[in-house]
Amino acid sequence: MRRTAAIGGALVLLLGALTGCSTGASDAEGVHVVVTTTVLGDIVRNVVGDAADVEVLMPVGVDPHDFQASSQQAAAIQHADLVVANGLGLEEGLSDVLEAAESDGVSVWEVGPDIDPRLFVEAADAGEGGGAGRYDPHFWLDPIRDAEAARLLAVHLDEVAPDHDWTAAAEAYAVELENLNDDIVSILSVVPEVDRKLVTNHRAFGYFADRYGFEMIGTVVPGGATLANPSSAELASLVKVIEEEDVPAIFTETVEPDTLARAVAEEVGSDVKVVELYTGSLGEPGSDGATLTAMLETNARRIAGALGP
Ligand SMILES: [Zn+2]
């Protein structure tokens, strides 16, 4: 497998050298970027436009905590000019292939560590299965950090393909994300400060909470990822938190089943809504979460609708 990948890599290099001599029309021709998540895929596509091939490893609707690469995808990583990954432990099932590629000399950029990551530090963050002292990987739910990611991407593209100007498109997209942030502030302005409390399926909304002045008061799934199972005592204490804080909604996610959240809502008895948000993946094409900007705006509208007057 590794040997095949290495031979394939040599062929791609050879072909790259040949086409590099014969064209000259587009200097970035043949630049191949492999991206792990659908969200980062959207950022990369917005920055590169037609100037590079973009291959996104994860299909829409898949939980990024729980994704394994196929052998073809592992080979694609080995042949990439640039691999863009989330990092901070998000892609648990890809860490081995990403590390192998990096030690074979492939340019792998993990975005998370470069955009001022937040720690899972609050007491409530620690939970069963840990989380305390580790960085929170869910930065893409903050459009200001996404804007920074777009700008930094231009720098990394410039390192692997310096003849193309990547900065103009990156800057335009970054500004779009910053404008979206202003829109989200205004969408959320209907939620009174005392009601800015989030109960979510898993601990994905730390960056969102920090950015918009919300507090995460409970999750259905303990720990920092989606991979742990709550005990019945943990679910009972979540029910208690929801009752005591008089929280009107539990936010579930498109990439995970909502069975447990519905059971918790039923246990609370009063009028607790179960509202689905986009978290680890873009929505299907044509949905209201089909792009990063659409998914962030849709989430804000659904949170405002559930927690607002
Ligand atoms: Zn997550």
Describe this structure in words.
The chain is 46% helix and 11% strand. With 309 residues, the protein is an alpha/beta fold. The strands form three sheets. It has a four-stranded parallel beta sheet, with helices on both faces. Strands 5-6 form a two-stranded parallel sheet. The chain has a two-stranded parallel sheet with strand order 7-8. Helix 4 (95-103) links the parallel strand 3 and strand 4 (108-110). Helix 2 crosses helix 7 (167-188) and helix 9 packs across helix 10. It starts with a helix and ends with a helix. Residues 1-28 and 123-130 have low confidence and may be disordered. The protein binds zinc ion. Residues 65, 138, 202, 204, 225-226, 280 line the site of zinc ion. Zinc ion binds next to loops.
| DSSP strand tally | 8
Spatial order of the strands forming the largest sheet: 2-1-3-4
Radius of gyration: 21 Å
What is the structural class? alpha/beta
**What quaternary form is this?**
single chain
- The shape, in one word, is globular
What's the number of helices?
Answer: 11
Taken as a percent bin, the fraction of beta residues is 5-15%
Stretches where pLDDT is under 50 for at least 5 consecutive residues are: 1-28, 123-130
